[in-house]
Each structure stands twice: as structure tokens, then as C-alpha cells.
Amino acid sequence: MADKDIVSKETIRRLAVDLATYLLELPIDPHSLEVLPTEHQRVEDRRADLVVKLRDRTGEPFILHIEIQNSNDDAMPIRMLRYMTDILLAHPGLPLQQYLIYIGPEPLTMPDGIEGPGFRYRYGLRDMRSVDCRYLLEKDTPDALVLAILCDFGDREPQVVVNHIYTRLKALLGDDLKRFREYIAMLHILSDNRDLQAEIEEADKMLTQVDLERMPFYEAIMERGVRQGMERGMERGMERGMERGMERGREEGEAALLIRLLNRRFGPLEPEIERKIREASLETLALWGDRVLDAQTPEEVFS
């Protein structure tokens, strides 16, 4: 995106629905979301400010306001209170739900509200340090994968987690370039809140290097696979041969991607390991790819 400060409505829509569904677990109708025209509707460095109109599952409308904070701020309750008054003045008559999502490296010390003489103000508070990223990674959907960038990586190397998110997004959305770009844009936005710009940049480079559909060797693999399939098809039936040729082409492409990931994680692989990868099925390659995230040695990937 040319300007990260101003985010497209579609990106805001996806972020709001995903945060409400996966992290806040709100019972919403995701198709009812309406991005509200407010000057606060932007994503800035180190802070996301989302204000949208939704309906719950009973059809009742409400406004959802989400703040993402990556450091403790003693003034946060006052800021949230200010947002509340601004939003309610701009949209009278609608109930408001506010949530603060904390993603900082230090223990959370911010309160979930403020009290004074004659008043008590509260908002929802979610500490992402308590959310293991595997909770979202194992869902293996594009939306959950993107939000995993906000969670606690534990003892996992940040670059390994980011690379895993990228490669799974590519596998899930590779045929839909428009949606793939939208999710990558969301990753870029959310990574600013986690100071993961360097890891994202490295993953971008990796993805460029292994963008198989645009690389000559991938085209050669596909061509060879189709040709072999056609030759077999002359004997066993053209349709079956073509399908097997295309499948083999995909297998070789996925194998090349896994080999590159393992080389980046563990260094040059033994020839026997490369041979094992290149002979594996698509299902086996996907299983090994998931194991790269937590493996400490190449052997653990294949155990």
C-alpha cells in the first residue's frame, strides 16, 4: 500500500470482522458490517483504530470500537473515554462496545477502565500475551493466519512464524491473487504493531523468490508434468494422464518451496533429505510444512 496511514474500507472490514470473530469471540453477523465515516478510521504507526457498525446474531445493531496497543499507556482509560464520547455523539442511539487489545512485550499494566466521583467507566481488555499463536495457526484459514501475527510466539523464532504464515497464505490463496494481496496488506499493517517489519520484509523476499507461478523453472515443471501425463494418457486415458501430470507439477512446486524453507531454517540439506522431499505426496508435503514451525532439527520435521 502506498500510504499505510489510510486503509481501504475492505481491509478495515476484514480486520474488524476477524478481530471480533477470532479474538473477541463476539456473536456477530459478519455480513452486516458497515465501516463508519469517522476521522479516527485509520491505521497509524503502532496503533490500530477501528470503528464499525455491526449486528449481533439476533439482528440488533451496535457499534464496535477496537484499539490495538503495543505499549502500556497510563492515559489509555482517558483516551478510551474520549473515543466513547466522540463515537456516541457522532452516532446517537446505538449501543457501543469498546475493546482494547494489548500486544506489547512487557506485562500488561493498563486497567480496563476508570472510576471517579459518581461515575464508573469500563471497556473490554484482551492481553494477546496470553494467546498462543498456535490457537490461530492451527485454524489454518487466511483470516486466522493473519491475526496470528498479533499473538505470543512463545519460544518460536519470529521469522519462522512469519514465513509459515506467508507460505500457508500462498498455499490457500495462491490462485486468487486479489485476495492474497489483501491479506498480505493486512499483515503489513498489523506487523507495525509488533515491530516485525524486518521479518515481514524478509518473508516478502522469500515469497518473491519462490513465487512459483511466475518462475521459469515452475513453468518447466508444469510443462514436463503435463507432457508426462499426456504420454501416460495415450496408454491409460488422456484425462487421467493430464490430471496426474498437473498433480506432479504441483508436488514438485511444493517440494521446491519446502526445501527453500528448510535451507533457510537449518542450512543446506543432505541430498537424501532433498530426495525424500521431492518424492513425497502433496499431503505429506503439507504435513511437513506445518512441522517446520516448531522443529528444532530437520529430523523433527520428518519424524
Structure description:
InterPro entries: DUF4351. It holds the Pfam family DUF4351. It is built from twelve helices and eight strands. By secondary structure, it is an alpha/beta fold. Strands 1, 2, 3, 4, 5 and 8 form a six-stranded mixed sheet that branches. The protein has a two-stranded antiparallel sheet with strand order 6-7. Strand 6 and strand 7 form a beta hairpin. Helix 8 runs antiparallel to helix 9 and helix 9 packs parallel to helix 11.
| Rg (C-alpha, Å) | 23 Å
Return the domain count.
2
Average residue-wise pLDDT: 75
Query: End-to-end span in angstroms?
Result: 41 Å
Helix content: 40-55%
Q: Biggest sheet: strands, sense, closure?
A: 6 strands, mixed
Order of SSEs, N→C?
HEEEEHEEEEHHHHHHHHHH
In terms of per-residue confidence, which ranges show pLDDT below 50 for 5 or more consecutive residues? 1-7, 40-48, 212-219
Give me the secondary-structure category. alpha/beta
CA-based shape: elongated
Query: What fraction strand?
Result: 5-15%
User: Count of DSSP helices?
Assistant: 12
Tally of DSSP β-strands = 8
Domain DUF4351: 247-300
Pfam families: DUF4351
